[in-house]
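Folds abound. Consider this:
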Amino acid sequence: MLYQAKFWLKFSIFNLLIVALVGLLMRYKIAFEFPYLNQKSLQHAHSHFAFSGWVSHTLMVLMIYTLSKKLNANAFFSPKYVWLLAIHLVCAYGMLVFFTVQGYGFFSIVFSSLSVVVSYVFAFWFWRDSTKLMLGQPALPWFKAALFFNVVSSVGTFALAYMMATKNIHQNEYLASIYYYLHFQYNGWFFFACAGLLIGFLNLKTHEQKTYNQCFWALFISCIPAYGLSILWLDLPVFVYIIVVLAALVQTLAWLKLLQVVLATQKNKFASLAPHLRFIFALVALALTVKMALQLASVIPSVSQLAFGFRPIVIAYLHLVLLMVISLFLLTYLLAKKLLPNTSIMKKSFVVFVVGVVCNEIVLGIQGIASFSYTLIPFQNETLFVVALVMLFGLIGMVGSVSKK
């Protein structure tokens, strides 16, 4: 049984389409009348499926793909990964259905817990196989860090599941568990896996690895205390606050150094890409820089209180990371590696999706800033619905191109 990355990536694009469709339905319920389905349950389904069915599935497929390139007889290890990917998809679809139907209920918690178990198995297998097959590869420590943070993030999942199952919910613990999970998913699992893919894509020379390793350790170590950025609204001791501030500063400086080195040494690599892919890679780098700047600014207590006190700000920030950084990077990477068909329909549809993502973030950003002064933006909900339609149309074209190919 050989490993076919392109086959599994078809599920990735289709799953992203489902994420967009659920997001569109949520926007419709806000802007117009739609009495069916619970909005909170849809939100849980949307977020869980985005994390598992789109991002985590795609990262797992691409990490296995990277590993398979290091072994000629990939039948040696690929069958177990094929079964694991299939089970993971079943869990993702189970969460999509049951979170939509029942919110946090018995079956949704079962599928969510099983998904975590699958992530543990994947982490164990990939760690063991990559240690044998990718020894000395610059991407290896980034992949291992991603696996580590994915496992660490599951503590937040189990805490949430326990509180929901027992109906014993305390507001501070509930929010702290959510932000714990989100932090180690976004800034741990997602970020380090994407960074590993990028570094593998760049084919670094031996003399370049020292700087990348320094940036890696700075980002890895600072990621752990940086969780404190998500809970600054709690009454943290002064020494903990100082550590959190230092972590935010280290992360920002390490990212800027990493960006500087990539731009200085990889001009030829990026110059060989199609113009629209170069532009979107630059857009992703800009979005991540903005994310780091916002994160650093949040250490100011008054700014932190404003950010966590207004839900539109949180929504805008989460979409900035998940859509403009993670999702656009993954799609651009897939096109650059020719893992998606290089057709005219694919290119045009991708551009439409990118336009939708950028417009979505602009509208959410304006909405978030306006919320500070409790200013109501005219037709903001209708505008977000139209923008969601644009993203959906772009993804429909991409799915059509993948299916036809």
Summary: The mean pLDDT is 87. The two ends are 22 Å apart (CA to CA). The longest helix spans residues 171-202.
